[in-house]
Amino acid sequence: MIWDDHFAKLKNSLNLSKDSVTIISPYMSQNTLELLITDIKVPVKILTSWQIDDFTSGLAKTSLAEKCLDKGWEIHVFHGGHKRKLHTKAYISDSKNIWIGSANLTDKGLGINKNPNFEMMIMSEFSEDIKKHIDFLFSISSRVDKNLIEEFKKLEKLIPEKDIFELDWEAPFVIDGLTIPSQILESIGGRDIFEKLWSLMPSRPDVQNLEPGYSEENNLHLIGCRWGQFRQALRDMDIERDFIDEKIKILYDWAINEYGNILDVKTGGRGNYTQCLVWKL
């Protein structure tokens, strides 16, 4: 069983193959695949996933399949026509030994990214029962040929281009003592957008410093920020109208779900019913 150094150990194991190599991984990157089996001289058989969401998220590409065919490797896929999704990860040498576990054939999965996933793999003998199951997976998959690649290329052309945000900090992003996960920053459009929105929030108030006769219902602006103010800030940043409310909702959901002990959403009194993100007093 291994918890780290997956790439080197899998590569060493597969390099000993004398008859065949079989790889099953829903997600795989072309670079990682070539690095792993670049020295392999035996026939290679691959099974991966081509669901629509795999393409839209960039986890599947027809170019990888083309490279496989160019090298004479056999590649099969599970796609939208299959009722069940592929989730198996397996690396098989000569139908004798099999590595199974959680690691996809990607830089993060096999530990060669500077921020790799935590994965676990175990090696087992390739039993008859395992063989039957692997054979079954290949039997219900679709073998990729040039015609199938052309069909999925049509799909790739329909996928809209997405803005890519580089979120590569050595430590979590922290502001006002609150930690903002990278997935929140990515969903909201990047660190600059988050910082702009958060800058509209007043500093966390001390009850003693509030105005005399303070009424929370009519003075939410002293402890928070209205939805409309957030919306105007995004308009000023030339954010597309269709995405503005979605980004504000992400901010609100993060605040309430992660810091509901100190943040809340409230509405003001008559004539001021828009939602305000506020500090709890």
Topology:
Layout: H1 6-15, E1 21-24, H2 30-37, E2 44-50, H3 52-56, H4 62-70, E3 74-79, E4 90-93, E5 97-101, E6 121-125, H5 128-139, E7 142-143, H6 146-158, E8 173-175, E9 178-180, H7 182-188, H8 191-198, E10 224-226, H9 227-236, H10 241-259, E11 263-267, E12 275-279
Parallel strand pairs: 1-2, 2-3
Antiparallel strand pairs: 1-4, 3-7, 4-5, 5-6, 8-9, 10-12, 11-12
Shape: elongated
Helix tally? 10
CATH hierarchy, class of the largest domain: Alpha Beta
Helix content percent band: 25-40%
CATH superfamily of the largest domain: Endonuclease Chain A
Q: Give the DSSP E fraction (strand runs of 2 or more residues).
A: 15-25%
Task: Specify the biggest β-sheet.
Answer: 7 strands, mixed
| CATH-defined fold name of the largest domain | Endonuclease, Chain A
The side-by-side strand order for the widest beta sheet comes to 6-5-4-1-2-3-7
Give the low-confidence spans.
none
The ordered string of helix (H) and strand (E) elements is: HEHEHHEEEEHEHEEHHEHHEE
CATH architecture of the largest domain: 2-Layer Sandwich
What does the average pLDDT come to? 86
Question: Rg, please?
Answer: 26 Å
Q: Separation of termini?
A: 51 Å
Main attributes of the structure:
281 residues; alpha+beta; 2 domains; 12 strands; elongated; Endonuclease, Chain A
Walk me through what this model shows.
- By secondary structure, the protein is an alpha+beta fold.
- It folds into 2 domains: 6-158, Endonuclease, Chain A; 173-279, no CATH class.
- It contains 10 helices and 12 strands.
- It has helices at 6-15, 30-37, 52-56, 62-70, 128-139, 146-158, 182-188, 191-198, 227-236, 241-259; strands spanning 21-24, 44-50, 74-79, 90-93, 97-101, 121-125, 142-143, 173-175, 178-180, 224-226, 263-267, 275-279.
- The strands form 3 sheets. The protein has a 7-stranded mixed sheet, with helices on both faces. It has a 3-stranded antiparallel sheet with strand order 10-12-11. A two-stranded antiparallel ribbon has the order 8-9.
- α9 crosses α10 (241-259).
- The protein starts with 5 loop residues before the first helix and ends with a strand.
